[in-house]
Write a structure and sequence with these properties.
Blueprint: H1 3-15, H2 19-26, E1 27-34, E2 44-46, H3 48-60, E3 62-70, E4 74-76, E5 79-90, E6 94-107, E7 110-118
Parallel strand pairs: 1-7
Antiparallel strand pairs: 1-2, 3-5, 4-5, 5-6, 6-7
Helix pairs in contact: 1-2, 2-3
Length: 120
């Protein structure tokens, strides 16, 4: 898959709530995931299995998704970005509205880097 195909598939799977399946299918084994400084589950996580575990922990903390919105990906060569808005109730911190920008790098049809920018 080229970057645009990966980006479209990523968006589709995320909108369908298939976040973990997305990691299994679209992420490279050596993927690196970067969060904002100070997040409790680690700012930098390396390896598909560790990224999967980070995502599982985040999803297990969710009580309810009230709404979510994912913009159309913007593709530039080996990178794509998307803006995500969520209204989520968490077990650990109650209801929050979240707005973030996600940036991904694709190599050989797989996501090798992801980075998230948001306010905490």
């Amino acid at each position: 898959m080229n970057t645009n195909e990966v980006a479209q598939k990523w968006k589709q799977m995320c909108e369908q709530g298939k976040n973990l399946e997305c990691i299994t299918e679209l992420y490279a084994d050596n993927v690196v995931s970067k969060e904002m400084p100070g997040v409790p589950h680690g700012e930098i996580v390396s390896g598909k299995q560790n990224v999967m575990e980070k995502s599982k922990q985040w999803l297990e903390d969710v009580i309810e998704f009230h709404s979510n919105e994912i913009s159309e990906p913007v593709v530039a060569d080996k990178h794509f970005t998307s803006k995500m808005n969520f209204d989520v109730t968490f077990k650990s911190r109650g209801r929050q509205q979240m707005e973030e920008v996600c940036v991904f790098e694709v190599q050989e049809g797989k996501i090798v880097n992801e980075q998230f920018f948001y306010s905490m």
